[in-house]
Specification:
alpha/beta; six-stranded antiparallel beta sheet; 9 helices; globular
């Protein structure tokens, strides 16, 4: 897939040095060495002469030009939020000069670095905790916790598929805000999620929480990368409407989660019955454990 976007020589050196299926991230910074991340370890890439490949401004701009199909304007809504999504759910994070007007971000220009995050299918990665999340035909409100890049989106995608393989026929509304869970294109998605899933892409969670319940009548809403300060009201409204919520959130561990603004209310009101914590100890998607609504440790990934 990235062959269509990376410089030919750069791509050749990457695939000759690494198994592409093991790569989690490619990091490009102007005038710095090209970095490939494999199982949470960072490596420099060498050319035919054995020298480290350095990224030029042209390399970076050429990649972004291809990623945006020669039209940065057409992708500006995504660029404002710091990313471009490629086919197969590959997300390209962007940094550079942020242009603002009256306190509102208008675009990013003069790009200086990018992070290419490559998703992987880890089949059955959610299976060890499935019975902790689904009981007697009902799904528990679940929050999946991990640091960025530790596999929460992969886990989420697999969990949705497990519903289907376990003949679980409840209507699921998936809110794919950045179109990286499903990579929907012309109504077709890149990943098999079963036949009970309805999908919103490129929309805010607030839109989905407000309009999705009324229009699609979901029994379960699935959202990625929850922001408690912005999304808490919609989250509570969904749960109080009789809809189960499965969400992910950025936090390294339970202690860091407890320090997030708005989490006290979630914990005190027992909005979530299960917390699944992932880490990168043995690569993205490593299961650290499962906690109940009072944050009691009820399952260890090491068992």
């Amino acid at each position: 897939m990235l062959k269509d976007y990376l410089d030919h020589e750069m791509y050749k050196h990457i695939v000759s040095a690494f198994n592409f299926n093991d790569i989690n991230e490619i990091r490009m910074r102007v005038n710095q060495n090209l970095i490939v991340v494999v199982k949470n370890k960072k490596y420099f890439v060498k050319d035919d002469n054995g020298d480290f490949i350095k990224i030029s401004k042209f390399d970076l701009e050429n990649f972004i030009r291809r990623a945006s199909q020669n039209s940065l304007y057409a992708y500006n809504d995504s660029i404002i939020n710091g990313y471009i999504t490629l086919p197969k759910g590959i997300r390209v994070g962007l940094s550079g000069e942020v242009v603002s007007e009256n306190g509102q971000v208008m675009t990013i220009k003069n790009f200086s670095s990018l992070s290419i995050r490559i998703p992987h299918i880890i089949k059955n990665c959610s299976l060890p905790v499935y019975d902790f999340l689904v009981k007697g035909g009902d799904v528990k409100n679940t929050l999946i916790v991990s640091s960025p890049g530790a596999g929460k989106t992969t886990f989420l995608r697999d969990l949705i598929f497990q519903f289907y393989t376990h003949n679980f026929s409840k209507n699921v509304l998936l809110v794919d805000e950045r179109n990286e869970i499903t990579n929907m294109n012309d109504s077709e998605i890149s990943y098999d999620l079963g036949c009970f899933v309805d999908i919103y892409t490129n929309c805010s969670k607030s839109f989905a929480f407000k309009n999705g319940i009324r229009s699609m009548r979901p029994e379960i809403i699935v959202v990625d990368e929850l922001d408690l300060e912005k999304d808490l009201a919609g989250l509570i409204n969904a749960m109080n409407s009789g809809v189960t919520v499965i969400a992910t959130i950025h936090a390294k561990d339970i202690n860091q989660l407890k320090r997030k603004t708005g989490f006290d209310e979630i914990l005190n009101q027992r909005y979530f019955q299960r917390f699944v914590v992932l880490n990168e100890d043995n690569g993205p998607g490593t299961l650290e454990g499962v906690y109940d609504e009072r944050l009691n440790y009820i399952f260890s990934g090491g068992l």
